[in-house]
Structures are given as C-alpha cells and as structure tokens.
C-alpha cells in the first residue's frame, strides 16, 4: 500500500532530497550502486549529491540520446540497490518508453534483485501518454516521487510514496537532510487546489503541444523532438549556435515582453541548438502560427 509523506524543501529545487533519500533507503539492501539514464537529474542538476551525501555509485546506462532499455539494465554487472526511471525523460524532449517496454525494464531490474524507483516529478504529464490511472502507473514501482509544483503550478514541495516501512525510514531522513518544515500546509493546499483546477486540463495542454509541434515541423525552418509530443513537453531544434539563440531570445524578451525559453541546450553539432517548450495555460494564448513566427524571428 502506497503511503504518501509530504516533503517540502527549503532549497531552490525540491527534487534532490526525495530522490536521494529514496536511493539511500533502497541501499539498505547492502548494495551501494544504482542505475539511471545518463541524462537523469543527478549529475546535471543536483551536483552528484548521491555520492557526496550518501556515498552511492551511479551506473549511467543507455545511450545519452535514447531511452534506457531492458538490455541496458541486464548488462550492468554490479549488483544494484535500485534502478531509477525519470518519467517523462525531460532532457530527451519529454518522451517515455511504451507501457510494454516499461514493464519489461522493471522486470529486468527486479530479476537483478534491484528495487525500482520512479522520478515522477511530472507523473501528471506522463499519464497523458499512458492513459492509465495514476495508481496503476505508480504500482509498478517500489517508491515514487511526485512534484507538487511542476505541472500542477503549485508553490513548492513534493511527495514521496512507498510502503509503510519505507515511509517510516523516509521521515527520519527528512529531518536529517533539513527537509522538515514546521508549516507545510500552504504547499499541500496549493497542490490540492490545482489537482482540481489544473490537472484536468493536461490533456488540453498536450493537444495544443501536438498542434504547435506540427506547425513548426511543417514550416521546415526548425524541427521538434519528438516529432509528435508525447506529453506537454517538447524541444525545438534550430540550425543556429547556442550563443546566438540565447542572444536572440533575450532581444525578443526585451523588445516584446515574450520569454520563449528558460534555458537552451547545445547539440553535438555546434551549429545547432535547442530549447524546451512546456505547454501550460500561458501557452494557449499562442497559436501554432504565432509560434512559427516567433521561431522565424529568432532565426532572423
């Protein structure tokens, strides 16, 4: 039975503590290694906190530009405490394995004696792809982390789910790692409100993302990854260097008050770059034609 515990944070990103806490608890198996995709949050966004705080070792498995596979898991030689899935895989354009592939991967991990953890910060968006109840998706895993502000547009905070023993141990680590706030109810209140107001609109946001991507690809000046968004997230790839993209984005923001992206991504080909589009209520104000013109303005 899944038993949620609210884990509000005092640091800028609410993801690091719940994820590493889950890994540390799974490491109680006596194994100190875990596996995850090379572009999961651990190195790029969290400063390898799993190693610094918990002395864990990460196996970065699979191709950096493709989803992790069951074969990637089977090829890890060292015994693993856990395998981690980020659903959806944000750095790859918000893509996910098929339901069948995900079940095969989870099975491969369990056959190696590893526990399975979902970084489901955007589980809400993953559901629009799988079109299965949230509890059915979560039931594949021993532990699940979900964000209370990503997708839900809440204030801050996160929820970690697992069985009673796991959550009991997590409460101890919540205090040890500085995640225990005396008043967490504002985080929960905002999230509960948006479960009713925002969550039902995610299919609408995804449908708009599909329309926006189709227009970009039809125009031909840029392209999207994936070609057809699986969630509300996709990437736009442009044939200009990253520094030029950032200067152009800043100019549009200063002149027209439109911020197209929060961050940009370099590409193996230095003449190309990319940025993320995450479709929410604000993006509905932009038609597919509007976005195409904005991309053309960037290129100009």
3D architecture notes:
The chain has 300 residues and is of the alpha/beta class. It contains twelve helices and eleven strands. The strands form two sheets. It has a seven-stranded mixed sheet. Strand 10 (264-266) and strand 11 (273-278) form a beta hairpin. Helix 10 (202-219) crosses helix 12. The longest helix has 18 residues, at 202-219.
Question: Summarize this, please?
Answer:
With 300 residues, the chain is an alpha/beta fold. The protein is 41% helix and 16% strand.
CATH class of the largest domain: Alpha Beta
Percent strand: 15-25%
Radius of gyration: 20 Å
What is the string of helix and strand elements? Answer: EHEHHEHEHEHHEEHHHEEHEEH
Summed up, the helix count is 12
Number of domains: 2
What is the third-level CATH name, the topology of the largest domain? Aspartate Aminotransferase, domain 2
| pLDDT < 50 runs, ≥5 residues | 1-13
Assigned CATH superfamily of the largest domain: Type I PLP-dependent aspartate aminotransferase-like (Major domain)
Helix coverage percent: 40-55%
Widest beta sheet: strand line-up: 1-7-6-5-4-2-3
The number of distinct β-strands equals 11
Query: How far is the N terminus from the C terminus?
Result: 55 Å
Oligomeric state of the chains present here: single chain
- Name the shape in a single word: globular
Quickly give the CATH architecture of the largest domain: 3-Layer(aba) Sandwich
What attributes characterize this protein structure?
alpha/beta, Aspartate Aminotransferase, domain 2, Aspartate Aminotransferase, domain 1, 2 domains, seven-stranded mixed β-sheet, four-stranded antiparallel β-sheet, globular
């Amino acid at each position: 039975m899944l038993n949620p515990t609210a884990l509000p944070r005092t640091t800028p990103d609410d993801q690091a503590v719940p994820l590493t806490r889950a890994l540390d608890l799974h490491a109680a198996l006596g194994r100190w290694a875990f596996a995850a995709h090379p572009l999961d949050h651990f190195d790029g966004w969290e400063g390898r906190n799993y190693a610094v705080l918990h002395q864990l070792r990460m196996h970065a498995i699979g191709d950096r530009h493709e989803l992790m596979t069951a074969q990637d898991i089977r090829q890890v030689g060292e015994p693993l405490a856990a395998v981690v899935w980020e659903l959806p895989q944000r750095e790859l354009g918000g893509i996910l394995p098929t339901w069948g592939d995900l079940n095969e991967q989870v099975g491969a991990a369990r056959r190696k004696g590893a526990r399975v953890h979902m970084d489901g910060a955007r589980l809400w968006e993953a559901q629009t792809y799988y079109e299965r109840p949230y509890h059915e998706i979560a039931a594949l895993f021993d532990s699940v982390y979900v964000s209370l502000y990503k997708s839900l547009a809440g204030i801050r905070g996160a929820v970690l789910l697992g069985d009673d023993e796991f959550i009991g141990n997590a409460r101890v680590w919540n205090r040890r790692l500085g995640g225990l706030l005396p008043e967490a109810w504002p985080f929960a209140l905002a999230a509960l409100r948006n479960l009713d107001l925002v969550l039902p609109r995610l299919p609408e946001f995804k449908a708009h993302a599909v329309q926006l991507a189709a227009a970009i690809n039809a125009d031909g000046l840029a392209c999207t990854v994936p070609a057809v968004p699986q969630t509300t997230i996709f990437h736009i790839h442009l044939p200009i260097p990253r520094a030029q993209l950032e200067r152009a984005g800043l100019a549009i923001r200063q002149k027209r008050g439109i911020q197209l992206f929060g961050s940009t991504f370099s590409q193996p080909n230095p003449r190309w770059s990319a940025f993320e589009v995450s479709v929410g209520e604000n993006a509905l104000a932009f038609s597919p034609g509007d976005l195409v013109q904005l991309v053309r303005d960037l290129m100009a």
